[in-house]
Design a protein that fits this description.
Distance between the termini: 33 Å
Helix content: 25-40%
CATH class of the largest domain: Alpha Beta
Structural class: alpha/beta
CATH topology of the largest domain: TIM Barrel
CATH superfamily of the largest domain: Metal-dependent hydrolases
Radius of gyration: 22 Å
Strand content: 25-35%
CATH architecture of the largest domain: Alpha-Beta Barrel
Shape: elongated
Number of helices: 8
Length: 208
């Protein structure tokens, strides 16, 4: 396996590298039935997202990862014959502040409906509170049952006529992108600035 992964792990220690390879090998062997899964959901109805079908089968779990679907016997088994299992939903664009609750309360509300991750654009709180608002959202949403990722607001202020006093420029964009939970630049609403090649707009796009 080492040769295959050499190009993928260039900035990690040998110890971490070997640990990743070992975990992957165990997961693959579990999927193949060579190692007994730690946990099996028996006779579950599950969604095949590739064929858009609901099918029936056992789901093998290895170290918290769904390793395989088929026929398995595990160290621990749960009768899931009355349950339907689907992948966690991902909300690809939302504004946490629009929920009018804290990130923790928001996570409590949506996790029960199957949402396991969100990608938030803190555009609104940034226009009201500036960088302090973005920093609060990132800090307050860490270690929640829902994985929360962010995009850097592209238009703070929202227009050149706004007078909130806060500004997120291309330097701020670069800074926030150093955070592993910040994925990129949020929707560029200032399309006139794109069309006219506004200097700051182009710098923001280039930074992302």
């Amino acid at each position: 396996m080492g040769d295959f992964f050499d190009g993928y792990f260039t900035n990690i220690t040998l110890e971490v590298y070997m640990g990743i390879c070992s975990d992957m090998k165990r997961d693959i062997q579990t999927a193949l039935g060579e190692i007994k899964p730690q946990l099996v959901f028996k006779n579950a109805t599950y969604l095949n997202v590739f064929t858009n079908e609901f099918l029936k089968g056992d789901i093998a779990v290895s170290d918290g990862i769904f390793a395989g679907i088929g026929e398995y016997s595990g160290e621990h088994e749960i009768d899931a014959s009355d349950y339907t299992i689907v992948p966690g939903f991902i909300d690809g664009h939302m504004h946490l502040e629009s929920s009018i609750v804290t990130p923790a309360e928001y996570a409590k509300a949506v996790i029960h409906h199957g949402t396991s991750a969100v990608i938030a654009d803190p555009h609104e709180i940034a226009n009201v509170c500036g960088k302090a608002g973005i920093d609060y959202m990132i800090e307050a949403s860490d270690n929640l049952p829902v994985d929360v990722y962010f995009m850097v607001p592209s238009c703070v202020p929202a227009t050149q006529f706004d007078e909130t006093g806060y500004r997120i420029d291309h330097k701020n964009v670069k800074k926030y992108l150093d955070n592993e939970r910040v994925l990129g630049l949020a929707e560029m609403m200032n399309y006139p600035g794109v069309i006219t090649c506004d200097r700051e707009v182009i710098k923001k796009l280039a930074a992302a």
